[in-house]
Amino acid sequence: MQYIWHHTRHIIDHYKGTLPLTHFLKDYFRKQPRLGSRDRKMISEMVYCWYRGQKAVSGTSDFKQSVLACLLLCGAELPAVKRLYPDEWQAWSGAGMEQRLNFLKKQGISFDEELLTHFTPNLSDGITLSEFRLSLLRQPLMFIRLRAPYEAIAEQLTEKGIPFDHCGNQCLALPNGTKIEDLLPQHSYVVQDASSQSTGNFFRPDAQQHWWDCCCGAGGKSLLLKDAQPHVRLTVSDKRSSIIHNLLQRFERYRLAPPETLMIDVADAGALASSLRQRHFDHIICDVPCSGSGTWSRTPEQLYFFEEKNIPMYADRQKLIAGNAARYLAPGGQLFYITCSVFREENENVVAALLRDGTLLLEEQTLINGTGRRADSMYVAVLRKND
């Protein structure tokens, strides 16, 4: 197994966080054709667990033992990875967290929960610092939103031996790595985190209303909206042409009429005025760029390389984007301010700034805490334009 350790060490030594780890690994494996599917899965698991737990582990300077400690802490589930454990470690791979910590302590390896984050963040209401930190050790599950009857999808998955949990409404949780595209018709489901799906509960659209998804990204919220009410008029915008292209492809895949598209940076008030002029929207979805801290259990490398000084930068841009978008909200209309952050500075503090001049009124705000169901965490505030 020395070549597995060699590649794992090489990746960790050379990855600098300048692009998503999944992209880095895909490019690395493309250049290593002799690595088989099992090898790639093992190396990926080892690397991801390293970035999840390494900063909180001390008491050993041996690279292999550090990786093994991270694997044990994170509850690595891949059978091939478990075989890397020394004999005396094997029995503890399926034990509870406290038992695993006690075992590591007897090996001289310490774990400090506080070091899972290299700073002490000020969190939104609805999540504790301890549950946030400990959630970082565990990869979230794969979630899909059903666009076909539950019974039909459940029957197909059961026939193919795929375990799943029904999370309520049209949400299913599946094991990570499930090749769902090989199991179900592509138009019958959307891969979407459970907490992201829950944001749709706030929308309540009516036919013929005009909605604007002003930072549309991959279009997850737009698809939620159109599936809830196919007859809303929808405009989407993003500053990246590739994103708009991908969104339109998704709408075609799901057999939905394409929305009006605008390629524009909502942070640019002048460009917005030139594009939208006197237009107003009944409701606006404002899913702003953020630290992504609510998704760090899925992308641990982002936390590993994150700098706390960037949080105010995100917050300033969020205020700018949401404030600019609100100018195009019709009186009585709602703006849905959404982040995938758990930081108060990006959530409640931004909303407080938006409320300051009295143009917007707060109807509700909440943190969708996904830690208990191995999902991401998201924040939603519903703001109404003063009549």
List key phrases describing it.
alpha/beta, Rossmann fold, four-stranded antiparallel beta sheet, 3 domains, seven-stranded mixed beta sheet
Structural class: alpha/beta
CATH C-level of the largest domain: Alpha Beta
**Reported CATH architecture of the largest domain:** 3-Layer(aba) Sandwich
**Strand order in the sheet with the most strands:** 9-8-7-10-11-13-12
Taking the alpha carbons of the first and last residues, their distance comes to: 68 Å
Task: Give me the number of helical elements.
Answer: 16
* N to C succession of SSEs: HHHEHHHHEHEHEEEHEHEHEHEHHEHEE
CATH superfamily of the largest domain: Vaccinia Virus protein VP39
What is the average per-residue confidence, as pLDDT, rounded to a whole number?
95
| Count of folded domains | 3
CATH-derived topology of the largest domain: Rossmann fold
Total beta strands:
13
Radius of gyration: 22 Å
Helix content class: 25-40%
Low-confidence stretches: none
Strand fraction equals 15-25%
Brief overview, please?
The protein is 39% helix and 17% strand.
Account of the 3D structure:
The chain has 387 residues and is of the alpha/beta class. It is built from 16 helices and 13 strands. It has a seven-stranded mixed β-sheet with strand order 9-8-7-10-11-13-12, with helices on both faces. The protein has a four-stranded antiparallel β-sheet with strand order 4-5-3-6, with no helix packed on it. β7 (210-213), α11 (220-228) and β8 (233-238) form a beta-alpha-beta unit. α1 packs across α3 (37-53), α3 (37-53) packs across α4 (63-73) and α15 packs parallel to α16 (348-355).
